[in-house]
Amino acid sequence: MRYFFLAYALVALLVVGLLGVRGQKFTKPPVRVFPDMDNQDKVKAQSADPFFADGRGARLPVNQTQPRGLNEAGAQSIGGIPEYEFGGQTGYYYTGHVGDYFGSGMPEELKLTEESALSLIERGKERYGIYCAVCHGQSGDGQGITGQYGVPGIANFHLDTFKPASYPDGRMFETITVGKGMMGGYGYNIPVNDRWAIIAYVRTLQTAKEAK
Ligand code: HEC
Fold this sequence. Notes:
With 212 residues, the chain is mostly helical. The chain has a domain at 92-210: Cytochrome c-like domain (Cytochrome Bc1 Complex, Chain D, domain 2, Orthogonal Bundle), CATH 1.10.760.10. It is 36% helix and 2% strand. Helix 3 crosses helix 7 (192-210). The chain is elongated and about 95 Å long. Residues 131-132, 134-136, 146, 151, 153-155, 162, 172, 175-176, 180-183, 186, 198, 202 line the site of heme C. Heme C binds at residues 131-132, 134-136, 146, 151, 153-155, 162, 172, 175-176, 180-183, 186, 198, 202.
C-alpha cells in the first residue's frame, strides 16, 4: 500500500508538472536544457554596435570586395580583382567543359609559349604549395599533413585514375572550382588563371614521378 501512495504521488506530481502550468504566462526566460542556437552573439539589423569606432552595426562591404556571382556587364575583372567565380561565363577556360564533356589540355586563353608555360608551372607550384599541399602532399601523393589529423581518403595524384588519360584537365578544373566528395571547392579564392597553373603543376608532378 505504501508503494501505491508513493507511485500515486509521483504520477500526480508528473501530471501537474507537465500539464499544470500550461497556458500561464511567465516573465522569466524558460529553462533551456538544450540551448541549441537560441542565443547568438550577433548584430541585429539596424542596431548599434559599440565594437566599431563609429558605433554603427550595419557595415559597408570591405573595400575591394565583391558579391559572389556578380558579373553584370560580363566583366572578367572587377575593381582590379581577377576573375574568381563570377558565374555566367562559358567556354573551356571558365568551366573546364567543352560542350557536355570535360576538355583536356591548357586553354587557348592562356596563350602559352614555351617561356610562359614555364612561368605558369612556377606559379602553379607556388599556388599548389599554398592551397593543395596541406592535404595532397608536396609531391602529390596524398600524404599531406592533414591526413595525420584525420582528413580521410585524400586523393593520390600518382594513381592512374588521376592521370590525364583518365582524368582530363577540365575535370580537375571543376574539382578545384566546386570541390568533390570530401573535398571543398576553392573557386572562391583561387582565380581562374591560377587554377590552370595548379593543374599544369599537378601534371608536372605526375610526369616527374615517372621519370627514370
Ligand atoms: C582539406 C584538404 C584538401 C585540400 C586543401 C585539397 N584537397 Fe583535393 N581532395 C581532398 C580529399 C579528401 C579528396 C578525396 C575526395 C573524395 O573522393 O571524396 C580530394 C580529391 C581531389 C581530387 C580527385 C577528385 C575526384 O574526382 O575523385 C583532385 C583532382 C583534387 N583533390 C585536387 C586538389 C587540388 C588541385 C587542390 C588545391 C587547389 C586540392 N585538391 C586541395 C582533400 C583536399
